[in-house]
Every structure is written in C-alpha cells, then in structure tokens.
Design brief:
Length: 156
C-alpha cells in the first residue's frame, strides 16, 4: 500500500522518518526500541514511496529476539490461565461481613490480608463490598453495624 504525501505532508513524514532513524542504541535506546524504530522508518519510506538514499540510515540494529513489532509473537494464554480470575478477596470479605457483624471493616480487611497472600484489602474496599451486598439484596438493608463496633458509643 503506497501513498503519495501531499506537499504539506511531505516535510512532516520526512521529519518523522529522520526522528525514527535517530533512535539508536548510541542515543540511549534499548536494542528493541532501536529495531522497532528502524523498521517503522523502513515502513514509512516504503508507504510514501520516498527514496531511502535521501536519509542517513544507521546500521540495522540486531537484537537476539528482534523488535517488539516484528516476527512471530508468542501465543497468548487464555485469560483464565493467566490470572485465575482473582484471589477470592471479595468472596472472603463478603463471608466475613456476614459471619462477623460485630467486626469493624478494618478488622475484616486485616483478616483478608492475613489469609490471602498479596491481598491489599482496606477498610474502604470492605465497605464497598458491604454496600454492594446491601444493594444486591444479599444482606439486610436495615442492618447497620453498631457504633460500638467502631469504637463509638450508641446515642440511643
């Protein structure tokens, strides 16, 4: 697919190709970045039918694995195999909310973090799970944590 640049586009395309050719390892780029820039410059020169001799081409970068944009890419694993769809943080938080209505959200977050490696539950995230449970009808909407559980006396 070739495209003749307009008179206005031509200087922009030339500057872009020159900028890509300046991306070399000597100028601080990684080998992969340099290879990708070189390949993109080649692609643009071919697309716009520009004379490659009109540019100062650096030596073609060589990388062990090639650039990030060319060659065969490793097959993607299915999403389920990659992440396992979570660690069960929400499920555990919801279970603790129901089983321990006298616990504070902070205590529930601490329990979740103790039980699940890498969990970063917070009081705010546990509060979010409780609100979602109330909204979805999985928890009594009139249920309110006692103020004593939060360290505040009831004013009833």
């Amino acid at each position: 697919m070739t495209k003749k640049p307009s008179a206005r586009e031509l200087p922009l395309v030339r500057r872009r190709i020159a900028a890509l050719l300046d991306k070399t390892e000597a100028n601080g780029c990684t080998p992969g970045e340099a290879a990708a820039a070189f390949e993109k410059a080649e692609e643009l020169a071919a697309k716009y039918e520009l004379d490659p001799g009109s540019f100062r081409w650096p030596q073609r970068p060589s990388t062990i694995f090639g650039s990030g944009t060319s060659g065969a890419k490793p097959p993607k694993q299915p999403q389920a195999a990659v992440s396992g769809r979570g660690k069960g943080i929400g499920r555990l938080a919801e279970r603790l909310i129901v089983e321990h209505p006298d616990w504070t959200y902070r205590r529930i977050a601490d329990e979740v973090n103790a039980w699940i490696d890498g969990a970063r539950a917070t009081e705010k995230s546990v509060r979010w799970y409780a609100a979602r449970m109330r909204r979805d009808g999985r928890m009594d909407k009139d249920r309110r944590r006692s103020r004593a559980a939060h360290g505040k006396p009831r004013l009833d």
